[in-house]
Amino acid sequence: MSTIVMSACWPLQTKTPAQKAVLVSLADNANDEGVCWPSVGKISERTCLSERAVQDAIKWLIKHCAVAASGRTGRSTVYTVTPARYAPPQDLHPRSKRTPAESAPPQQVHPTPAASALQPPQDLHPTPAASAPRTVKEPTDEPQGNRKAGAEAPPVPDPDRLTTEQAAKLTKDELWKAGKSLLNQLGQIPLEQCGAYVGKLVKDYGADTVMEAVRQAVVERPAEPRSYLMATCKSIRAGGARPAGGKNRQEHLEERNRQAALAAARGEGVPA
């Protein structure tokens, strides 16, 4: 195989793929002078073409000077591949010269200013009323107060412990927030479950009973606030609200007053 002849044949454009395949097959067999003598059957085998198709392709290549052939009596034909002499037919490629009218660019490549004009600014953005966020209604199973969506549980007013007097002054909303914080911080209850738990207590025991239980819980700050709230609600329903200390609220206040009086008599400060 001659790489010189082969590389010269590759760029040539023939009319059919069969003609190009036969030309390349001949170049693959040729020496540096382009001479080869493969049989039609061998070319047919290499190109996967019928012998008739090979013969037609050779005739076309000879006609257009890409190949020259010379017969030998009793022997195969000698072919000479001549890519430099190749003269392709005139109808192989479209004419390269075009009249000014034919070569002119197509009209209306770009849309008219009216069609491509940008929308005026007032049409690019929705009006404030259209783009305003929708109002989301909060669940009704707990007081709304000043709660904000996505906010963490607000801490109790006193992070250490509220006194009974302080707890007694808490509003209903403040008690609700303090109870949620207590359940979340001490009871390790996920914030989203705190409201559901207290809501169930309200359903079972009533809002007033649950608020009183929460009021006592924020004073006592039990280690198990969920169990404490349940037990206190049951105790209040049974007739006496008793926190973990064993006394109801009135008894607790009276006991504290007695302790204050004794401390004053001894010249000590008032116990907390």
Mean pLDDT: 75
What does the main sheet amount to? 3 strands, antiparallel
Biggest sheet, spatial arrangement of strands: 1-3-2
Q: Write down the Rg.
A: 51 Å
- State the shape: rod-shaped
User: Which class do the helix and strand fractions yield?
Assistant: mainly alpha
Per DSSP, what share of the residues sits in E-state strands of 2 or more residues? 5-15%
Provide structural commentary:
By secondary structure, the chain is mainly alpha-helical. Among the domains are: 3-88, Arc Repressor Mutant, subunit A (Orthogonal Bundle); 164-265, no CATH class. It is 50% helix and 6% strand. It has helices at 3-9, 17-29, 40-47, 51-63, 100-103, 113-116, 121-124, 128-131, 164-168, 172-185, 191-205, 207-220, 225-238, 249-265, and strands at residues 35-36, 67-72, 75-81. A three-stranded antiparallel β-sheet has the order 1-3-2, covered by helices on one side. A hairpin with a 2-residue loop joins strand 2 (67-72) and strand 3 (75-81). Helix 2 packs across helix 4, helix 3 packs across helix 4 (51-63) and helix 10 packs across helix 11 (191-205). The longest helix has 17 residues, at 249-265. The protein is rod-shaped and about 145 Å long.
